[in-house]
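User: Earlier you gave me the apo prediction for this protein. Now I'd like the version with zinc ion bound, so I can compare the two side by side. Same sequence as before, with the ligand SMILES added.
Assistant: Got it. Here's the input I'm using:
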Amino acid sequence: MFKHLLDIIYPVSCAVCGVPSEKHICNKCRSAITLHPAIECCSVCGKIMMEVAAAGLVASTCTQCRRTPPRFDMARSAATFTGTVRTLIHKFKYNRATWLRQELAELLQGCMIANFSKEKIDIMCPVPLSTSKEKSRGYNQAGLLTENLSRSAAVPNVPQVLQRKRDTQTQTFLDAKERRKNVADAFFSPKEMFPWVYGRCVLIIDDVMTTGATLSECAATLKANGAERVLAITIARD
Ligand SMILES: [Zn+2]
Ligand SMILES: [Zn+2]
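And here is the structure of the complex with zinc ion:
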């Protein structure tokens, strides 16, 4: 009887710790997420530069962005890719836990408000998944996140503006240079979508950012079709 009552009050359990909860992530686990600060980070890629701030210096751009400037104008992540967030993304991506999409999209929206409140974003789109991966996984995790974020942020989701030209090998074991080579010329923005892209500010969505090579290539593709400004947000930064 008591268990039945609990099921009515708390229909789901926390995806991280398993306790009965109103939402898929309980408040305790949510508050354990290491959020990325909106300041004290690289002005371009959002990499945390606490040492620079601690030394009393003004953080501008990180070494990597100075050495190889990315093609996006700004990228930001909601959280660090550790602990709770790593568990959630892993379940969302590899264990078909698509029911986490709303809670994860809320993290993205918080990141969007914290970093891009002054931006006038025209459209958003997900990083397209390779055809073979989408077929075996059954969904594009970035696509699901973009659908939810588009609704709550009231910004049109236009996935057609950014598409895959070819599949790429998994980036896990590649360094920054190899990643750039791996994703080079992997995307296209169709000419017919030009009216949606030309002169626009486009926001790209993905789950995790590592070196930013994929997001940079996506931004270059959109800019080649006339995008004026390209921003990117991810749930986590590895
Ligand atoms: Zn929990
Ligand atoms: Zn940077």
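For your comparison, keep in mind: The chain has a mean pLDDT of 91.
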